[in-house]
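During the no-cost extension, the postdoctoral fellow (Dr. R.K.) reprocessed legacy sequence entries with the updated structure-token encoder. One reprocessed record is reproduced below for audit purposes.
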Amino acid sequence: KGEDMIKVLESYKLNDVDDLFAAMGYGKISPVQVMHRLQPETEVKEEKRVTKKKKPKGEHKGITIRGVDEVLYHTAKCCYPVPGDELMGFITRGKGVAVHRSDCHNLDRLSTDAARLIEVDWKRDEEHNAYARIVVDTADKPGIITTISSVISAEDINISHMEANTSNQERSARITFVLEVKDRKQLNAIVRTITQSDGVIRVRRY
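Re-encoded structure tokens follow.
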């Protein structure tokens, strides 16, 4: 709230501190840049520290955001993109870039603010596991969860999360898995394998 902060706002042609926080959240201005303007004497020391942080921050290191460096991002939990999917990024307020599958149903709503959409790619030369969510509809029979879990484990795929619901009227069950996979090819392969399991009615990615 002091005069130094007012000078920082003026240098970036911003109206108030909230606008500054938003600009940092969008990745347009880095916190280090602001610190340089507030404390110019620490510029050399800060620069040395920043050069050690080349990789963008985020839960998935295999993603690159076109034209943006050192930006916070995360993969969206509504669609769980994995390597091999087409991607689209959405600049959130205060949480960096949310990375979605390009066919995510939420993008229809988010695309109304097209200025906040940004192109995102997978890094072709790196391998990283990612989380994918699938929904398995089955007959409600004893041991069905154990059977499907064993099929998944046999393919050396880790189950990060699992939940199941049953319908007594329809004598069916719906099991949701969050799997840790290498890419869409591996995901498609395990979906086909699960589909062939006894008692499985349908498998779909969600």
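Residues 184-195 form the longest helix (12 residues). Residues 56 and 69 are 6 Å apart (CA to CA). The remaining legacy entries will be reprocessed before the final report is submitted.
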